[in-house]
Amino acid sequence: MGIGSLSLMAAAACGSTRATTTGQATGAAAPTATVSITPSPAPPSTPTASTAPTPHPVEVAGARQAALGLFVADPSTPGHWYACSNSDNWAACPLTPTVKARLADLTSSGYFSDGPGGCGEEYISGTQNGLFNAPKVLSAVAGGNGRVTIVIQRGPSQPDLTAVMTKENGTWLASDLASGTGPTASIFSTKPNC
Fold first, then answer.
1. Burial of 107 (0-12, 13-18, 19+ CB in 10 A)
2. Is 6 within 8 Å of 32 (Cβ atoms)?
């Protein structure tokens, strides 16, 4: 290259670009140009951290197992399941005190009785006589709020039971129950589904 050669180098803000032009500065002929552009690699992306407490898979498994504790295998009849007992205010059931109080309130008002205005069935099993099929977890979904929603199939003719499990003092407990779907499914609705 002589004195008449031109060399150009440019850098772009978002990456490195190199352009080189070579030609004659004097003369009648049009200059020839060779342009070479080499982009620099993009900077590595930085993953963002989630701030919502999401249970680990082991915790989801624990919530699932605790939700199945709402049902007890009948030791006297193989293949028969019943709801955890209300004979002692659901003390052995994986339920928060709020859910236990709601069940006790509905029970004392006759809501689950065979009488007028009653469901005629127990809320957790959805039956009068228990289940003749083992309850089966259909789904277990971790929420961003640290809760796990478990959907349990109670039997072919009963609506599914949904248990929203919350970890309290290291123990998974149902903080809401819902029989079926819709606005009256929750145990806390004014008149919950039977």
1. middle
2. no
Ranges 12-26, 68-82, 116-130, most confident: 68-82
User: How far is the first Cα of the chain from the last one, in angstroms, to the nearest whole number?
Assistant: 92
Q: What is the CA radius of gyration of the chain?
A: 34
How many beta carbons lie within 10 A of that of residue 168, not counting itself? 11
Indicate the pTM of the whole model: 0.69
Residue 26 predicted with pLDDT over 50: no
Average per-residue pLDDT in the chain?
Answer: 77
pLDDT at 156: 84
Instruction: State how far the Cα of 33 lies from the Cα of 5, in Å rounded to an integer.
Output: 11
Res 62 pLDDT > 90: yes
* Helix, strand, coil share (%) of the chain residues, nearest 5: 10, 20, 65
CA 105, 111, 112: angle at the middle one, nearest 5? 110
Q: Hey, what domains does the chain have and what are their CATH numbers?
A: 1-41 (no CATH), 57-179 (3.10.450)
DSSP-assigned states of every residue in 90-113? TTTSSB-HHHHHHHHHHHHTTTTS
